[in-house]
Amino acid sequence: MKIRCLALVISSLLFTAGATAQSEPLTIPHPAKFEDLSMPSPDVKMPESYVKAVAQQAYIWGYPLVNQFNRRMTITQAPYPALNGGMVPVAPMGQLSMLTNYIKPEETFVTCPNQDVVYGLGFYALDKEPVVIQVPDFGDRFWVYAIYDARTDQIGNVGKPYGTKPGFYLLVGPNWKGETPKGISGVIRSSTEMANMIPRIQMDDTPEERTVIQQPIRQVMSYPLSQFDGKMKSFDYSKMPSIGDKPDPQAGEVKWVVPDKFFDQLDNVLTKVPPLPGEQALYAQFRHLVDAGKKDPEVRRWMNEAAEQTDKTVIADFFKWKNNGVAAGNGWNRSKNNAEFGVDYYNRTGTSKSNMFDNKPDETQYFYTDNDFSGTQLDGKQSYTVTFAKGQLPPVKGFWSLTLYNERHLFSPNELNRYSLGTKNKDLKLNDDGSLTLYISHASPGEDKVKNWLPAPEGIFSLYIRAYWGEQAIIDGSWQPPKIQKVQ
Predict the structure, then answer these.
(1) Smallest Cα–Cα separation from 366: which of 377, 355, 376, 374?
(2) Residue 357: C-alpha distances to residues 81, 205, 341, 351, 435 (Å)
(3) Is-contact 135 158, C-beta < 8 A?
(4) For position 151, which CATH number holds?
(5) Where does the secretion signal sit in this chain (predicted)?
């Protein structure tokens, strides 16, 4: 009886509510604008636990952006296009510097470099002036100009996959309202005033290629709009001087993010980089923290302690390939949202730590692993084979490669001066059944296998497949990398 009465009461209430809703529509207050919402009080005394919790979040979120700004600050100190330490292209703000060969194996500017392409590098401050980018005629070879904003997202589509024509292109900042000069083929708008460009031009590993590629490389340039005259400029990068000290490969990548300096540099990021839609509250919390640290030395000490701890734990864990991207099959992981991160802070920060400056998925897809097929760490004390079945090479419109990195995600010098194998190698030997086996080991696998040998260091290492301009099977993930088998 009680249950029946309760049901009648509920039914009555629902009927009444429905009748009310039909006769008198419910009025929902308009949500307050962000600027009308309550903000953190500057006078609040935050406890250590709260400070460290927010500081850790700020460090994870801000790591890629501080990384970017610190690279720009360093690279653009060069008074003219040059090679830092004789290895890495550097240039003044607004200009570009190009290599003329594969990057040298001793470099430490960036982790996971490759020896498939000839690289270039330029950094820009687009609130000062737009930049003109020259595109020469590259013929049939694969090429792409990867242009990044302050968040390490790529902007624009410039390269072979997009059918970009030779000519002049204008890179402008988010607030530029000028007129496009005659002779400019297209305008690329950056979402932030801070931008950088890394051209990648395919080069096969042959003496003939090294000669032929020099002509178009000379015309890969960028310069302020005020210097544009409609004529294709040229620069002989082979004569660039070496400046600065040579790096120490044993030290690993240059430490672009230093925990006890991080929050001073984050202050600049919060000012220079506008929030994405929905990030305003995040910015408010981080700004409140930074301001509190300026006023209170104890708060700043807690912030620094949190940054140091986060660097050793959360950030360090991104160096393990299992923590990057998504599973790709056979023990490999693959990149996810590479250079199109948006608010995917996880993969953005992971990439910034492990393999900064990916290309977008439609330009390149990346596959990587620290382990063999059994899940055991790859180690130069062992020997391995990687066999691509007939017809199962990475399906690409561009080209592919398999690269080996040491425990620092850099190259380890070897007797062949060889760090990758793939399309660029014209003398790879196929098996009788049409499959391709690559041999991974510290010791030579034998004279008959040397052309297919990728030398490994004596210690631990990782493997990394690049698929440039992938076919649909690469893009949708249906192609799987081959098993890495330990030789018994």
Answers:
(1) 355
(2) 21, 23, 12, 8, 32
(3) yes
(4) 2.60.40.1610
(5) 1-21
pLDDT for 289-301, tens place per residue?
Answer: 999 999 999 999 9
* Three-class secondary structure of residue 186 per DSSP: strand
List the one residue out of 422, 103, 68, 378 whose CA is nearest residue 249. Answer: 103
| 104: number of Cβ within 10 Å | 19
What's the order of all strands across the beta sheet hosting 364-369? 326-329, 332-334, 364-369, 461-468, 400-406, 420-422
Count Cα neighbours of 308 within 13 Å in the Cβ-side half-sphere: 8
Asked whether residue 66 is assigned to any structural domain, the reply reads no
What residues does 455 pair with on adjacent strands? 441
pLDDT score for 90: 97
Phi, psi angle pair for 12, to nearest 5°: -65, -45
Residue 410 neighbours by CB under 8 Å, 6+ apart: 105, 107, 108, 111, 113, 249, 252, 253
Helices and strands per DSSP (H, E), number in the chain: 10, 21
Do strands 326-329 and 332-334 pair parallel, antiparallel, or not at all (unpaired)?
Answer: antiparallel
Across the range 276-289, mean pLDDT stands at: 95
Instruction: Return the number of other C-beta atoms located less than 10 Å from residue 387's C-beta.
Output: 15
User: Of the residues 251, 275, 291, which one is the last residue of a structural domain?
Assistant: 251
Q: Report yes or no: 458 and 406 within 8 Å, Cβ to Cβ.
A: no
Pick the closest to residue 364 from 171, 200, 203 (CA basis). 200
Give the model confidence (pLDDT) of 378-420 as tens digits: 999 999 999 999 999 999 999 999 999 999 999 999 999 999 9
- Closest among 375, 368, 372, 373 to 336, alpha carbons compared: 368
Residue 446: CB atoms within 10 A of its CB come to 9
The number of residues making up the chain comes to 488
User: Would you give the DSSP letter of residue 227?
Assistant: G
Please answer whether residues 199 and 154 qualify as being in contact, where contact means their C-beta atoms are separated by less than 8 angstroms. no
Total domains present in the chain: 2
pLDDT of residue 448: 95
CA distance 84 to 247: 9
The one-letter amino acid code at 471 reads: E
Separation CA 68–CA 13 (nearest Å):
59
The structure tokens 């850099």 sit at 410
How far is residue 139 CA from its own chain's centroid? 27
In this prediction, residue 33 has a pLDDT band, given cuts at 50, 70 and 90, of low
Other Cβ atoms within 10 Å of 428 Cβ, number: 14
Confidence of residue 486 (pLDDT cuts 50, 70, 90): very high
Q: Are residues 325 and 231 part of one domain?
A: no
Tokens of residue 21, six digits? 């809703």
Q: For residue 364, what are the domain limits?
A: 321-486
What is the arithmetic mean of pLDDT over 359-374?
A: 97
Segment 307-350, tens digit of pLDDT: 999 999 999 999 999 999 999 999 999 999 999 999 999 999 99
Do the beta carbons of residue 350 and residue 324 sit within 8 Å? yes
